[in-house]
Structure formats: structure tokens, C-alpha cells
């Protein structure tokens, strides 16, 4: 449960005549809520062009759309949705909520985006020098400007012309009120999948768990550099960008994705349990029990306990009615928030040697608090085990992460990390074992935060 590493966004959208698309998109956003909790939005189109209906705002999906009956009554064959968490230099103002609805010479255009364009600053400066006026700090608006300047009434052709200008990590979903277009970057950093909705409908989403929520059937993941078009004619796709070395973010498996989602044909929960088993083999320790940090580390902790032959105990209890700690404006407030959010069960841990399994360590703030919680509850020993390698460098591909020098593992040995956190010992899963647990070739994954080697400069 790292405090300072968060996915930036979740996107979804689809086409299905005769279906309550706004209503279904809302429930797909509920399934993607973990990917962003700062704002939510839905854009709805008739499928024949014309005006696009939009509603968005700050807060959770349930706060922005408290009356789902309104959405159920909306008529429209297509819809796209977005949940957001700001990262880097992006502001958290309401103007940055998505989808963005842009009006230009050829009508209206709605855009939702997950990821980060690494050349956004250069493109923005170039367009501003030509007189462009920006209302937001989003990459979605940047793409809208580029498309509008093509002066092409065909959204597909305009997108195909500007896509080669985009560098970095992105999964875009766009609509002109006639069709839905999904586009994935040529490295495939950010996930995007296609599902079947009803007899003739299709749906795109950042994670497959969204399909389960709305009754869609998973078809496949979009290929890196692929564009998929959904309209009255069904679905068609083409390679809009030449594919590069596949680089799906490895943290999708470790932390970001919901455990009931599938990525590259692999179930996330089963992968995390296997990470825990391998962690137990690599870093065993004499102890009395294993516990996991709710919620993303539970699977890895259960795998560790199984492999080690130790009982798994729910020694940490999460208060689910406390706001997200990472949204608090100061580091001190975030640290205090951990005490409110988690509590150790004294009757379970007193006088026992405890292994805490967590999925990652970023600044180390949460780990310090966890160790203190256990010691205050009377634990005799506290051993920390991490089901991923040390995070040594920052991410530039759409993940909110501190600068490299703020990371506790940056240029620190394992023993020094354990001392700083206050644990009796600490063990990280090696990169080799992490990749092996996924059953994939390491070349198909972005591991830059573990290695400092970046697929895109």
C-alpha cells in the first residue's frame, strides 16, 4: 500500500444501438474507480453526429453521478467515460476533469486519456507559439488541438495524421458523436482491452473487470500502436503506429489493476499470489505468522504464507471510511492518515514474530508507520517482505511517483532501508523472479522504475 505511487486514470467507452450506454458506462467507471478518485465524467453521443452530452466533476463516480436513473434515461448509441488522478505538473482543478468536450470547425469531439505524453511540453509550446489557447493542462486537449489543425472532417484520418507526433504512454478514447475510437501507444505502456456488448455492441476499457460489471465479454487486448473504431458497422481496427518493443507497465500486475482483471491473458490475483510464493522462497525468515497490507498485498501475503507453511492472519484492519491518504496536501498529514486508515490487532500480534508483506516501497513513509503499529501492538519481531524489486527511479509514463532522490531505495542498500524503516529485516523480490512469476518475457514489460532503463527517452 505505497503512499505515493498511483495510476493516473481509467478510461472506457463503447457503441451499442438500443443499449443504455450512459448507464453502462457509469457502472464500468465504478469498476475502474481504483484507477482515479479525483474526478469522473461521461460523454454521450447519438451515433449520428450532433451535440454530445457531457457531465463531469470532482469526486468519486457515486458523487458525480448520484442519480443513475438520469443516465438510464439518456438516449445515445455511444458513450465514453473517465476517472482521474492527476500526476506531475497537471493541476487538480475542475477544468482538468475528463472527458474533455471540444468544439471545432467540424463539430464536437470528446476525448479521454490515460497515460502521459513525454513530448507534451514541446508540442504545447509549439502550438502556443502559433496562437493556440489552452484551457487545461491535459494531454487530451493537446491531442484535440492537433486534430483540429488537420482541418479534416474525418476524425479517423485526422487522428492517423497526428498520431506519429505523440511520444510516450497513452490510451486514448475519442468520439465525434458518430463513432468511438480507441488508440494505444506503440509501446503499449497503458492497458486497453476490447469486449463484446450484447449482439452487435462493443466496449473498450482500461481493465477487463469493467466488462464483467456491465455484462460484456472480453475479446482481446489492443495491440501496441493499434486503433479500434466502433460504430454502426461494428468494429474495425488498423495499425495506426508502427509497433515498438512491447512495454506494458509491470506495476499493472503488482499493484494498479484490480485482482479480478486479466492482463495479457494472465489473472492479476493469481500473479500476485505467485509473487508471494517466490518471495517466500527467496527471502525466508523464522516467524510465527504472515499478514498482508490491505488491499493490494493480500494475495501476495497469502502466497507467502502458503509457501512458508505459516498461518496467515488478518493482523492489519483497514478503516474504509477514511479518505485517500495521498490526497492530503502535506506529507505530515499523509503520514498521520495511515494511523487513521490502518490498525493492528493486538490480540493477534502480541509477543509474536510477524512478517508483513507489502507490494512495494516508495518513500518508505507507510512502511515506517506499519512497523510502528506492529511494535505498539506488542509484536516481538517485525519483518518486512516486498513482492516486487526496489523502486529506484521515477516514472515518466503516466504514473504519479516521487522524484528519484525521494525514493527510499534510490542508492540505498537493503540493510540501510531496514534500519531507516525500523524493521528487523527486509527482503525484496528480485526482478528475475518477478518477471518469472508473470510467465512472460521481460522484454514485453516496462521495468524502468526498477532498473532506470527507459524504453522511451
Architecture overview:
The chain has 457 residues and is of the alpha+beta class. It has 2 domains: 6-244, 4-Layer Sandwich (Glutamine Phosphoribosylpyrophosphate, subunit 1, domain 1), CATH 3.60.20; 272-440, 3-Layer(aba) Sandwich (Rossmann fold), CATH 3.40.50. It contains 16 helices and 25 strands. A 7-stranded antiparallel sheet has the order 4-3-5-2-11-10-12. Helix 5 packs across helix 6 and helix 9 crosses helix 10 (298-308). The radius of gyration is 22 Å and the shape is elongated. The relative contact order is 0.13.
Task: Give a quick precis of the structure.
The protein has 457 residues and is α+β, with helices and mostly antiparallel strands. Helix content is 29%, strand content 26%.
Assign the CATH architecture of the largest domain.
4-Layer Sandwich
What's the N-to-C terminus distance?
Answer: 29 Å
CA radius of gyration is: 22 Å
Say what the CATH topology of the largest domain is: Glutamine Phosphoribosylpyrophosphate, subunit 1, domain 1
**Major β-sheet, in short?**
7 strands, antiparallel
Number of domains: 2
Low-confidence residue ranges: 324-329
Structural class estimated from helices and strands: alpha+beta
The number of helical segments is 16
Amino acid at each position: 500500500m505505497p503512499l505515493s505511487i498511483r495510476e493516473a486514470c481509467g478510461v472506457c467507452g463503447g457503441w451499442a444501438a438500443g443499449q443504455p450506454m450512459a448507464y453502462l458506462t457509469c457502472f464500468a467507471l465504478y469498476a475502474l474507480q481504483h484507477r482515479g478518485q479525483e474526478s469522473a465524467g461521461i460523454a454521450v453521443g447519438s451515433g449520428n453526429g450532433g451535440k454530445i452530452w457531457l457531465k463531469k466533476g470532482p469526486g468519486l463516480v457515486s458523487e458525480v453521478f448520484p442519480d443513475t436513473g438520469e443516465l438510464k434515461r439518456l438516449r445515445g448509441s455511444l458513450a465514453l467515460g473517465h476517472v482521474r488522478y492527476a500526476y506531475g505538473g497537471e493541476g487538480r482543478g475542475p477544468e482538468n476533469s475528463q472527458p474533455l468536450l471540444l468544439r471545432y470547425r467540424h463539430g464536437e469531439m470528446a476525448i479521454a486519456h490515460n497515460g502521459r505524453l513525454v513530448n507534451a511540453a514541446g508540442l504545447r509550446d509549439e502550438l502556443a507559439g502559433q496562437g493556440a489557447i489552452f484551457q487545461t493542462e491535459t494531454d487530451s486537449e493537446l491531442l484535440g488541438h492537433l486534430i483540429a489543425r488537420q482541418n479534416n472532417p474525418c476524425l479517423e484520418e485526422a487522428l492517423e495524421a497526428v498520431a506519429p507526433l505523440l511520444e510516450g504512454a497513452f490510451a486514448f478514447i475519442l468520439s465525434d458523436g458518430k463513432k468511438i475510437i480507441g488508440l494505444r501507444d506503440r509501446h503499449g505502456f497503458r492497458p486497453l482491452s476490447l469486449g463484446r456488448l450484447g449482439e452487435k455492441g462493443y466496449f473498450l476499457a482500461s481493465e477487463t473487470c469493467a466488462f464483467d460489471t456491465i455484462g460484456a465479454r472480453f475479446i482481446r487486448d489492443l495491440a501496441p500502436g493499434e486503433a479500434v473504431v466502433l460504430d454502426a458497422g461494428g468494429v474495425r481496427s488498423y495499425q495506426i503506429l508502427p509497433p515498438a518493443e512491447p512495454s506494458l507497465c509491470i506495476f499493472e500486475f503488482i499493484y494498479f489493476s484490480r485482482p479480478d482483471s486479466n492482463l495479457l491473458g494472465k489473472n492479476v490475483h493469481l500473479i500476485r499470489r505467485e509473487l508471494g510464493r517466490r518471495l517466500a522462497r527467496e527471502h525466508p525468515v523464522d516467524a510465527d505468522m504472515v499478514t498482508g497490507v490491505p488491499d493490494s498485498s493480500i494475495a501476495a501475503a497469502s502466497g507467502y504464507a502458503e509457501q512458508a507453511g505459516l498461518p496467515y492472519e488478518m493482523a492489519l484492519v483497514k478503516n474504509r471510511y477514511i479518505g485517500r491518504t495521498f490526497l492530503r496536501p502535506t506529507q505530515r498529514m499523509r503520514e498521520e492518515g495511515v494511523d487513521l486508515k490502518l490498525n493492528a490487532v493486538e490480540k493477534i500480534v502480541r509477543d509474536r514474530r510477524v512478517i508483513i508483506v507489502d507490494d512495494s516501497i516508495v518513500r518508505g513513509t507507510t512502511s515506517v508507520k506499519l512497523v510502528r503499529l506492529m511494535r505498539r501492538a506488542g509484536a516481538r519481531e517485525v519483518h518486512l517482505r516486498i513482492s516486487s524489486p526496489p523502486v529506484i527511479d521515477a516514472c515518466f509514463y503516466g504514473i504519479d511517483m516521487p522524484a528519484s532522490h525521494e525514493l527510499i531505495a534510490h542508492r540505498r542498500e537493503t540493510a540501510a532501508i531496514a534500519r531507516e524503516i525500523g524493521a528487523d529485516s527486509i527482503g525484496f523480490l528480485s526482478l528475475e523472479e518477478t518477471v518469472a512469476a508473470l510467465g512472460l518475457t521481460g522484454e514485453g514489460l516496462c521495468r524502468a522504475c526498477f532498473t532506470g532503463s527507459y524504453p522511451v527517452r
